[in-house]
From TrEMBL:
One of its GO terms (molecular function) is glutathione transferase activity. Keywords: Acetylation, Endoplasmic reticulum, Membrane, Mitochondrion, Mitochondrion outer membrane, Transferase, Transmembrane, Transmembrane helix. Gene3D superfamilies: Membrane associated eicosanoid/glutathione metabolism-like domain. Belongs to the MAPEG family. This is Microsomal glutathione S-transferase 1. It is a multi-pass membrane protein. It is found in: Endoplasmic reticulum membrane; Mitochondrion outer membrane.
Amino acid sequence: MSLYTSDNPVFATFSFYAALMGAKTLFMAFLTARQRYRKMAFANPEDAKLNKGKTKTDDDVERVRRAHLNDLENILPFLSLAFVYVGTGPTLGCAKFLFRTFAAARFLHTFVYAVVVIPQPARALAFFGGMVVNLYMAYAILTSYASAL
């Protein structure tokens, strides 16, 4: 059985969570647009003119944009690390736990940061939940392949 086919349940699980995280990242653009229209705060003069709004910076819009940027900074490494991690031959249970934990942490991070603002340490805990998963997978990859050098 090849590690990178749908016959491998670890790769199938990775593929599901990779698609979920990709969709979540794409969805953040719509959340930003929703906030811009709610606040009538546009980044470009042509958008402001078309929507009878103003070119301005709004704290709520910036909060969603920062959450989106944080997704890009964390989900992209997850996708790379998790793909290589599949090649280390982890157990299905461990891989599912890591992928689910990461996905839950990213959804929770967006929720407490950009949807319903909840004071710290909620955002930090969600951030570190995902970070720990990425760091663990990096460690597992490095230790798994260190002997090949």
